[in-house]
Hints:
Low-confidence stretches: 10-15, 486-497
Structural class: alpha/beta
CATH class of the largest domain: Alpha Beta
Shape: elongated
Distance between the termini: 72 Å
CATH superfamily of the largest domain: P-loop containing nucleotide triphosphate hydrolases
Number of helices: 18
Strand order of the largest sheet: 5-6-4-7-8-3-9
CATH architecture of the largest domain: 3-Layer(aba) Sandwich
Strand content: 15-25%
Radius of gyration: 28 Å
Amino acid sequence: MSDRRSARRAAASIKMRGWRELREELSKDRRLLLQFFCSVTTYKPMPHMMQAHVAGLSLPEWDAGKGRWTSPKTQKLHLGGIGAGKTAWAGAEFVMGVIANPGGWHMLSGPTHDQVSNVNLPHWHRYVEELEQAGYPLASGKWHKAAKEQTLVCGGKVFARTYAKIANLLGFEFSTAWMDEIETVPRSLEIWDTVDGRIRRPGSRWRQIFGTTTPNGLRGVVAKFHEARIKAHGIEDEVERRKELMRWGWWRNTALDNPHLPANYLDGLKVHYSARRWRQEVLAEILRPESIIWAEFEDARHLVEFNRFPNGMEYDLAYDAGDQYPHVLWIARDAQGRCIVFDELCPDNIPMGKLHEEVVMRCQRLKREPSHIVCDRAVKREIQWALEQFPKSQVHRMNSRLEQSVAEGIELVRDMLDPVDRAPQLLFARHLGKTEERRGIVSCMQNYRYKQDMFGVITNIPHKDNVFDHGADALRMHQVMVHSRHSTAYTLSRKHL
């Protein structure tokens, strides 16, 4: 009898904890929240990911201006090379933010619809299913594909948006937001600040906006965090300094930090990447922007003797019509796969008929038609002329977004100019450097520059001056349409976004 009484007393002393109460308790300690999340899901973070998870403010703060306690706000930026695991980290970070904020509104976003649907959302759906199977449901209904949202238990919603739709968020208030690959879009800082202004949902346990990206120089959101942390380091009070640094947390990890990548993954990138691209997109280094776009070009490395065209060698035409400033390049491809620019035609204000005659005459001297011809897709008459004049040649059009991407073409040229562990694969005949043409291709390589904004800051937009840009355009179009398609392995750059 005494055993029954003690059992009843023990049962009465056990307090059943509801799901909402548990979530509120977990929100007070990020380490405890991470332990709980890993125990009920299949998430296995690497050491550098755990450090980024547990950092951040979680305890309420006193707002002297409003005279009340408010939820703390943290901004995080995870810089990582391709394959470093930053998206896997962010997917878990997003779900833990939802757990810690019952009743909150949350948004995950990316640069394109494909990115959001096929990269970001699968992380959300995976963890929702795993949590429900473990007895901790987050979603109270199915994902609404048209509205791109889902209702949560304990109240609240999750939204998915692309950066193009960020302007439509005025009036929305969120507890947390995930900004994936934020530095792949031109208006990264404007987009970040817009969403940051929306992180003010009433009743949030803690508020957070966090981004993941591969750095693209010290600009945009990366520069914002850099400046904020420099300012924080200047705070004299140690407690306040640590608090401010925690409010602006950032981490950098390379693809080499991920032991789970396939053995040949990095080797495949190394074959096709330039040294600069390797440092930026694999090692996640924040490189100083260069005013000269192809600063890797050097006369000693890239100019070679090419006075006679070998019989049987294939060549291509790269043709940018320009507006009264056309530029035509003759590009040979040797047995080693190298591209050699050996002739050019770039007269100013030449009648189109006369330009066509000169191009045909030079091709006839080579005793064969070009294998490939790349033209500007915007000038349809030139494409039609190439099709009629050279019926045996393959005429390319720049149709897809990736093919039309100026940034992608610039990087492909850079990959050829300065490979990570090989000799240059893009060369120029030495006599082209001695030409008197003011718009010669060697001058283009030496003077093609990025624009500067009104404050003198270097942007990532090439300067269009009708002098050095047309030859550069013809070269990058050739690399996109011809050389990259003949590569032994294919790697998709982050700049396609």
